[in-house]
Amino acid sequence: MDCDLGHFACADLGTVGALARASVNARRAGARLLVVNATLELEELIGFAGLEDVLLGRGRREAEQREEAPGVQEGGVADDPPV
């Protein structure tokens, strides 16, 4: 089910919390709540809370799909043994 927030002018983390609780209740009822027509500010707050996938339907890339930062190596043997 879509939650249209096109006319919702003010958003804060309390709003994100209320949307998260509504999403949990929707899932308990066998549905999925998706936020649509949210302001950029609200979308950024949802992202800050780490709820993009849950509330906006935008999944993050899995850790295996991320590129490693330059100079980062996978586990290996240390040059010096621990003391």
End-to-end CA span: 58 Å
| CA radius of gyration | 19 Å
Strand order of the largest sheet: 1-2
| Strands, count | 2
Based on secondary structure, the structural category is: mainly alpha
Please indicate the percent range of residues in DSSP E strands (runs of 2 or more). 5-15%
What does this 3D model show about the protein?
Helix content is 36%, strand content 7%. The chain is mainly alpha-helical and 83 residues long. Strands 1-2 form a two-stranded parallel ribbon. Helix 1 (13-28) links the parallel strand 1 and strand 2 (34-36). The longest helix is centred in the first third of the chain and has 16 residues, at 13-28. It is elongated. The relative contact order is 0.17. The model has no long low-confidence stretch (mean pLDDT 81).
Summarize the entry for a quick read.
The protein has 83 residues and is mainly alpha-helical.
